[in-house]
Amino acid sequence: MNKWLVAILLSVSGVSAFATEQAVLDRYQKSCFACHAFGANGAPKSHVVADWAPRMEKGMDTLVKHAAEGFNTMPPKGLCFDCSADDFKALIEFMAAPKS
């Protein structure tokens, strides 16, 4: 494969990954930050692995279901009324990851 083509493909994939990360961050700021940044009403704090570990043990399918249907003090869909299951998964993975 031509080295220029490889460089272009790598560049495009990097831009695409950045755009995806930015979209998750934007959605987090709009929909999740208010509760998860501070642990409001018992919400697991973003990027605090100890808060997320017991929840992650339940499995992603359960966490996505809880986000969509509501769980404890989190209302259905939280504040993300247009989130899909994939959006919730990406947001959960973002919040459960340690701060980089």
UniProtKB/TrEMBL annotation:
It comes from Zhongshania aliphaticivorans. Keywords: Electron transport, Heme, Iron, Metal-binding, Signal, Transport. Residues 26-95 form the Cytochrome c domain. It comes from the Bacteria. Gene3D superfamilies: Cytochrome c-like domain. GO terms for molecular function: electron transfer activity; heme binding; iron ion binding. This is Sulfite reductase. Residues 1-19 form the signal peptide. InterPro entries: Cyt_c-like_dom, Cyt_c-like_dom_sf, Cyt_CIE.
